[in-house]
Amino acid sequence: MAIFLTKDSKVLIQGMTGAEGTRHTARMLAAGTDVVAGVTPGKGGQSADFGQRWVPVFGTVAEAMAETGADVSVVFVPPKFARGAVEEAIDAGIQLCVVITEGVPVHDTLRFWARAQASGRTRIIGPNCPGLISPGQSSAGIIPADITSAGRIGLVSKSGTLTYQLMYELRDIGFSTAVGIGGDPVIGTTHIDALQAFQDDPGTDAIVMIGEIGGDAEERAAAYIEQHVTKPVVAYVAGFTAPEGKTMGHAGAIVSGSAGTAQAKKEALEKVGVRVGKTPSETARLMRDTIRTR
C-alpha cells in the first residue's frame, strides 16, 4: 500500500522537454513510474526518446489526459509560468499535481491553491518540493529511487535533503511512501494531510515527520496527532542553532522571537508522545527502536 501515488498512477510531465524535465523524466522511468505523456505548449504531436520508451508530447494537459488517462502531473516549469501550468492541470481535472518549481511567488501559490480547493478534485504537493515516491511502485519528482527500499514507514518532510537522508538511513526497513511537502510559507499538502493519509493506510506502521523552524505547522501537527493518530510518530525539527530573525534556507524558515523555534516545536511534539531526535541520525535510531518494540 501507499498514499497519493501507487503503481497504477499514470504520470504526465509539464515541461518534460526542458532540461530539468528531461533529466528527471528519465529517472522516473528508470524507477518504474508509468510516465504516459509530456506537455509543452507548441510541441504537441512530437515525442521524446528515453531509451526504454518513447513518450508522446501534447500541447495541453487536457489533451494529454484525454489520450492517456493520466491522473498525476509533475510540474517542471520556470517560476513565472508555474501558476498557469498548475491552473491548467487543475482545470483539466488532474487528481494530483506535484509542483517541483522553486521560487514561485507566494501570491501565485495562493491563487492556484484556492483554485484547487474550489475544484474539489486536485491535490497539490509543493511548490518548492522534491515530490513523492512509493518505493518499488512509482516516483513523481526528483527523489532518488535507489537510496531506499519498499517497507512500512511513512515519511512526510518539509526538507528535500533531510527526506533523502532519513530514507537512506532507514533503507533496510523501507518506506510505504515518502512525501516532500516543501518549505514555502504556503504549500498545498501539509503535515496534517499526510499524517491523516498514513494513519488510514494499512501499509504504513509508523511515521517519520520532518519539520523546521518558522510558522506553527509542527505545533498544529502535534495537536492533530494527539487527537487522531494512533500509529507511532518520530520527528525531527531542523534549525536548533538557527539565529533569531534570519531566514534559513526555505522561505518559511524564519524565527520571530519565541515563535517558531525548534525547541518550541520539539516540546509541543513530545507533549503528545512523539519522540523527537536532535539530529537526523538520532531520529533514525529512534525509529529503529520504535519499530523493534512494536
List the keywords:
294 residues; alpha/beta; Rossmann fold; 2 domains; seven-stranded mixed β-sheet; 9 helices
Question: What is the structure about, briefly put?
Answer:
The protein is α/β, with parallel strands linked by helices. It contains nine helices and 14 strands.
Could you please describe the fold and organization of this structure?
GO terms for molecular function: nucleotide binding; succinate-CoA ligase (ADP-forming) activity; succinate-CoA ligase (GDP-forming) activity. Pfam families: CoA_binding (PF02629), Ligase_CoA (PF00549). Helices cover 35% and strands 23% of the residues. It is an alpha/beta fold and 294 residues long. Mean pLDDT is 93; it is low at 253-258.
The 3D shape can be described as: globular
- Count of spatially separate domains: 2
Number of helices: 9
Structural class: alpha/beta
The CATH fourth-level homologous superfamily of the largest domain: Succinyl-CoA synthetase domains
CATH topology term of the largest domain: Rossmann fold
Reported for the largest beta sheet, the result is: 7 strands, mixed
Number of E-state strands: 14
Strand content: 15-25%
Q: How much helicity do the residues have?
A: 25-40%
Poorly predicted tracts of residues? 253-258
What is the alpha-carbon Rg in Å? 19 Å
What is the spatial order of strands in the main beta sheet?
A: 3-4-2-1-5-6-7
CATH class of the largest domain: Alpha Beta
Order of helices and strands: EHEEEHEHEHEEEEHEHEHEHEH
N-end to C-end Cα span: 19 Å
Do you know the CATH architecture of the largest domain? 3-Layer(aba) Sandwich
Mean pLDDT: 93
Organism: Planotetraspora kaengkrachanensis
Domain CoA-binding: 4-104
Active site: 250 (tele-phosphohistidine intermediate)
Catalytic activity: succinate + ATP + CoA = succinyl-CoA + ADP + phosphate; GTP + succinate + CoA = succinyl-CoA + GDP + phosphate
